[in-house]
Amino acid sequence: MTIQALVFDFDGLIVDTETPELDTWQAIYAGHGFEFPVERWGQIVGGHGHSEFDAASHLKELARDGLDASGLRARFRSESGALILTQPVLPGVLDVLDAARRLSLRTAIASSSPHSWVDAHLARLGLFDRFEAIICADNVPPGRTKPNADLY
């Protein structure tokens, strides 16, 4: 069998979006005197749905002092979003894409994230046109992202 195409994940492979999110929640929790439960958060990373963990609601319950979960979520989005916008393409990605082009391999992305997220970051990184197909959560029925094969 001959390899004809490469299918890439996005978050964590092309750009590290998860570390800034983790760092942001850890800072928010620490600011309120609590340790962020990494193991519980890890169950929702990647959109696998193994947990219903909501970091903002969890911190509100821990603090018991009237924290606003919506405000915590807004702060998280703002702070993690700013950090993510500074993230470069991860090492090796451009080399693999260049090699794929030289070998006439087709390239695609299969991501459990929505197009609004993936496409914007690919454009920011100058990679959008490097992929023949970009298949995201909005291209498959709800609940049919990874680990289901629908994205592929």
Describe this protein's structure.
The relative contact order is 0.18. The model has no long low-confidence stretch (mean pLDDT 92). 42% of the residues lie in helices and 8% in strands. It has six helices and three strands; from the N terminus they run E-H-H-H-H-H-E-H-E. The chain has helices at 18-31, 38-41, 55-63, 69-84, 93-102, 115-125; strands spanning 5-8, 106-110, 133-135. Strands 1-2-3 form a three-stranded parallel β-sheet. Helix 1 packs across helix 4 and helix 3 crosses helix 4. It has 152 residues and is mostly helical. It is elongated.
Please describe the topology of this protein.
Elements: E1 5-8, H1 18-31, H2 38-41, H3 55-63, H4 69-84, H5 93-102, E2 106-110, H6 115-125, E3 133-135
Features:
single chain, 152 residues, mainly alpha, 3-stranded parallel sheet, 6 helices, 3 strands, elongated
Say how many strands there are: 3
Mean pLDDT: 92
Number of helices: 6
Helix content: 40-55%
Strand ordering within the main sheet: 1-2-3
Task: Write the element-wise H/E pattern from the N-terminal end onward.
Answer: EHHHHHEHE
Low-confidence runs: none
Oligomer: single chain
- Secondary-structure-based class equals mainly alpha
What fraction of residues sit in β-strands?
5-15%
How far is the N terminus from the C terminus? Answer: 18 Å
The value of Rg in angstroms is: 18 Å
Largest sheet: 3 strands, parallel
Shape: elongated
